[in-house]
Amino acid sequence: MKDQEKGRVWLVGAGPGDIGLFTRKGMEVLSKAQVVVYDSLVGQGVLSQIPKQAHKIYVGKRAANHTMPQEQINQVLLEEAQKGFRVVRLKGGDPFVFGRGGEELELLKENDIPFEIVPGVTSGFAVPAYNGIPVTHRDYCSSVHIITGHRRAGKDYDIDFEALVRTKGTLIFLMGVTSLPDICRGLLDGGMDPGTPAAVLQQGTTSRQRRVVSTVASLPEEAQKHKIKAPSVIVVGEVCALAGQFAWYESLPLAGCKVLVTRPRELSSVMAAKLRSQGAEVLELPAISTRPVEDTSKIGEICSHIEDFSWMVFTSPTGVKVFFNQLQDLSVDIRRLGRMSVAALGEGTAKELRTRGIFPDLMPQVFDGESLGKALAEKASPGEKVFIPRASMGNPRLVEILEEAGLVVEEAATYDTFYETQDLIDLAEEFEKDNIDYAVFTSSSSVRGFSKAAKNLDFSKVRAVCIGKQTQAQADGLGMKTYVADRASIDSVVELVCRLAKGED
Q1: Could you please report the per-residue DSSP string of 286-353?
Q2: Which long-range contacts (C-beta less than 8 Å, at least 24 apart) are formed by 52-60?
Q3: Contact of 203 with 210, CB cutoff 8 Å
Q4: Half-sphere exposure of 31 toward its Cβ, with a 13 Å CA cutoff?
Q5: Are strands 210-215 and 197-202 parallel, antiparallel or unpaired?
Q6: CA dist 159 to 19, 152, 174, 236, 344, Å?
Q7: Burial of 156 from C-beta contacts in 10 A (0-12 / 13-18 / 19+)
Q8: 443, 445, 450, 453 alpha-carbon torsion, rounded to 10°
Q9: What is the dihedral of CA 375, 379, 380, 381, to 10 degrees?
Q10: Per-residue pLDDT for the chain (505 aa), expressed as one digit of tens each?
Q11: CA gap 263, 281 in Å, rounded
Q12: Which of 55, 269, 273, 384 lies 20 to 30 Å from 21, alpha-carbon distance?
């Protein structure tokens, strides 16, 4: 829906790649965007946060390969804002550090379009930091300089290399990997000691970051030997010699590991945070989403005689959240549940209940519907009534086992599950190129949703880390290479990913 007032443009720096370096203000602005204009240097983690309903315009820009000329990008921003939309221009790094942000503002200013700037973490500082290179150090240098390594086709560098050498500071070249030999030659011709430490840092702050440290004289040859490609940052100066001493990212358990998390967005944050704390690059692409049912008449009808039930069964954290919200909407006093015993499937479900002051009376050791049914059938007496508020797509086996044991079961669908699709990241390509190491699945429905979202994917290329046996069975059915956690908990799943990354399973 358009704003009633004139549109507005936000130039937002997306940072160097790691979504953890995307600013809180950037995330807030992006969450409200109606139009997002983005380029090829925006990390996938940030791209995954673009609102589903936003109109997305790709203007990918790499050296000598522009999907859209800069002048046309400027025009797009103007036209979308003139339509009354909230427009976010999402740019890698910082929009004012060789991001051509100033050029994009000129046309907006001429046409009285309001705009705001949201600075981003520049790759010039973040990428060296992730590689253990401090760009300043009182024992090595007293200044730092950021220089564009890109030059226009057919033209010489407009860089005073002699002046740069005289600064004796740290030199950081952005967008210069294709011109690395010319940059190093310019520095040597400008009087730099051939033995000066220098480094080229590829895909910094991501799971695929690589580092080559050498000298100014030999760096071009070493970079070619290691097949270094863009995007890369070039650092020249004595501080590069500290990389081996201060490198820290590689020591994390999941360094160099990229993990796809498929949980619903409202549940993925804890899982993603735990994986990131271990060093993983996490791509959050929910395979399913949930939505409370619109018709709550059955829930209301059951709640009208809720005292008749001996047991209430919850099978997911979402089920707990939705049900108690619905109780509030229906004006049902929670004290009416006091006589019932409560069974929970999984530690996540039990945790969600405990936040409401309810401690489950029963939780099976194996977290699947069949085990829950058998455990409850042994605990309850025939004739007792069991209430199960859960997803409309609930596993029928749970009810079958309870009814076979003589229990009276009433179900009520509290929420619906929908399969999610996304159009920004080609999952088939990501797995074909082995860019994703593991996909994490916490339910059978997330596996099914993923299979629908990842069209044309050879599922045998997917290493699936599953929270339980039912989820594993669903992934096995697609031909994935599967691994199952020891316990059906987030911590156990993370532990399994760490073991797999170490080659222990």
Answers
A1: -SEEEEE-S--HHHHHHHTTGGG-SEEEE-SHHHHHHHHHHHHHTT--GGGGTT-EEEESSHHHHHHH
A2: 52/422, 55/80, 55/85, 56/423, 56/424
A3: yes
A4: 7
A5: antiparallel
A6: 33, 13, 13, 15, 67
A7: exposed
A8: -160
A9: 120
A10: 454 467 999 999 999 999 999 999 999 999 999 999 999 999 999 999 999 999 999 998 655 555 789 999 999 999 999 999 999 999 999 999 998 999 999 999 999 999 999 999 999 999 999 999 999 999 999 999 999 987 766 667 789 999 999 999 999 999 889 999 999 999 999 999 999 999 999 999 999 999 999 999 999 999 999 999 999 999 999 999 999 999 999 999 999 999 999 988 777 788 999 999 999 999 999 988 899 999 999 999 999 999 999 999 999 999 999 999 999 999 999 999 988 999 999 888 999 999 999 999 999 987 788 899 999 999 999 999 999 999 998 888 999 999 999 999 999 999 999 998 888 899 999 999 999 999 999 989 999 999 999 988 999 999 999 998 889 999 999 999 999 999 888 999 999 999 999 998 7
A11: 16
A12: 55
Q: Is 136 left (phi over 0), alpha (psi -120 to 50) or beta?
A: beta
Tell me which residue has tokens 């049912």. Answer: 293
Residues annotated as part of the active site:
39, 61
Respond yes or no on whether the N-terminal peptide bond of residue 231 is cis (omega within 30° of 0): yes
Token duo for residue 341:
């015993």
The Cα 90–Cα 44 span in angstroms is: 12
How far apart, in whole angstroms, are the C-alpha atoms of residue 365 and residue 346?
9
Q: Which amino acid is at 281?
A: E
Distances (CA, A) of 380 to 67, 315, 384, 411: 65, 17, 7, 17
Give me 362's structure tokens.
Answer: 């029963």
